[in-house]
Amino acid sequence: MKQQHERYKAKSVQEGFNMLELMIVLAILSLLSALVGPTLYERIKPAKQSVARAQIENFATALDSYFLDTGSFPTSQQGLGALRKEPSNTFRWRGPYLKKKIPLDPWGHSFVYRFPGNNGSYDI
Fold it and tell me: Contact, 91 vs 70, CB < 8 A?
C-alpha cells in the first residue's frame, strides 16, 4: 500500500507545468503576436478603404434614383438623410432610396455630402 501511495505522489508531481515552462510558452506567444500583429493591421487598412468605397457607391446609386424621381439632387442642408426621409418641398419623392439607416464610415465618422460638389454634381 505504501508503494502505491509513493507512485501516486511521484506521478502527481510530474503531471503539472512548472513556472519556467509557463514563462517560456508566454515568451513564445508574445514573440509570435509581435510578429503577426502588424501584418494583420496592414491587411485591415485596405479592407476599410474597400468598405468605404462600396458605401459611397451605394449612396451614388441612391442619389441617382433620387435625381431621376425628383429632377434634382438633395441640397447640402438636406444631406444624405433625404434618401431615407422625404424632405419638405420635394415633389415626386418615391423613397426611401436606402433600405437601412445611413451608416458611419469604417473609421466611425459621418459621411459628408455636398451639393453642388467640387468634383461633379455632388461630393461624398
Answer: yes
